[in-house]
Amino acid sequence: EPQFCETSFKYLTVDHPIRKLCIKILLNPWFERMTMTVILFNCITLGMYEPCPPIDPDTGQPECGKNCQMLKICDDIIYFYFSIEMVIKMVALGVYGRGCYLAETWNKLDSFIVCSGALEYCLDV
What we know:
Layout (H helix, E strand, L loop, with lengths): L6 E2 L3 E2 L3 H11 L1 H20 L17 H28 L11 H20 L1
Antiparallel strand pairs: 1-2
Helix pairs in contact: 1-3, 2-3, 3-4
């Protein structure tokens, strides 16, 4: 079992029930398998993305057909999963310091992608 920092988010000790749950989820092999499955699914949906959708002659705006709408729903689900994954890892590992979430390069990339996605959602509103 890996070593966990003493506290996460300044107040969540290793014995805190929420942190215990996050550690239990993180150590479950199915958590990693699920994450890899979502990454594969994301690659498939990215390959289906149509960067230049046809223009609606009536409105002059790009039209979003059923395929486009389904991809938007898939994108929302994938983003939600990666956001939850990031929060679980941050609570379980701690955010910053030796052995914590941001100590690993892949997690830095993941957090950048999730934060960029959040910015995109904010600008879409």
